[in-house]
Amino acid sequence: MKKNFKPSEIDEEHEDLLALSLSTPHSQYMHSNSSQPPPLLASTPPPQRLPLFSAVPQPPPPFDFHLYHLPHSPPAFHHDLPGPSRPTRTRRSPARTLSQGKTETIPAPYPWATTKRATVHNLHYLQSNHVNTITGLVQCKKCDQSFEISYNFPKKFLEVAKFVSEHKSAMHDRAPEFWMDPTLPDCNHCHQSKCMKPVISKKRSINWLFLLLGQMLGCCKLSELKYFCKHTKNHRTGAKDRVLYLTYLGICKQVDPSGPFDA
């Protein structure tokens, strides 16, 4: 059965509810028998307003190819465009310690290599001394025959330098897949394809510039890549794609110190 209320009863009920909702801790304290003071109300700071849009850092300036007498070409695809850069982190150069009996300088293993371990001559030196051809030894994985192949230095270095300049921001400090798994040359003896692997013996005699031009640095072991980073005062921890990326940029930096090859 529905209960009917008089208007006066409804008004009195509303007044009681309003008085209850407006009651404060202070008033409750005044009506209580406690002798402790009322707790202080924590003041809530006003919420901070976040900006609607974050500032997007500008991409690095294009690589100056004036030394190579060829103009710079823009990226061919939209996914090659550089994205927002990550915050710059300061890396600590690892301390170089040589084993007993070893020295920092060695006899230059190649005309394009210096007497310093894991270091090649720069572009000015190579051009001044007319070093336009870089050779290296490769061996077939099928027939075991060894051959010496050569690369045109200005042409091949330009290919690597342009790729790094255009795609460095999109690599995120990691070597791309085709650097990790290089495409090997074909064998002229047994006519098998993609089977000529570079010959790597001692670390001190690795043909770094030859491997760079052929984009075969991925054939090196992780320990060999760490050897390069160790003697070039570079960060050498992490997975192979990380150390391989630093090796590519490190050799490019040695050849062209003014290029966009800072790791």
Automatic annotation (TrEMBL):
Signal peptide: none annotated. Residues 123-255 form the DUF7086 domain. Residues 36-49 have a biased composition (Pro residues). Residues 21-33 have a biased composition (Polar residues). InterPro entries: DUF7086 (IPR055513). It holds the Pfam family DUF7086. Residues 1-50, 76-109 are annotated as: Disordered. PANTHER family: EXPRESSED PROTEIN. This is DUF7086 domain-containing protein. It comes from Prunus persica.
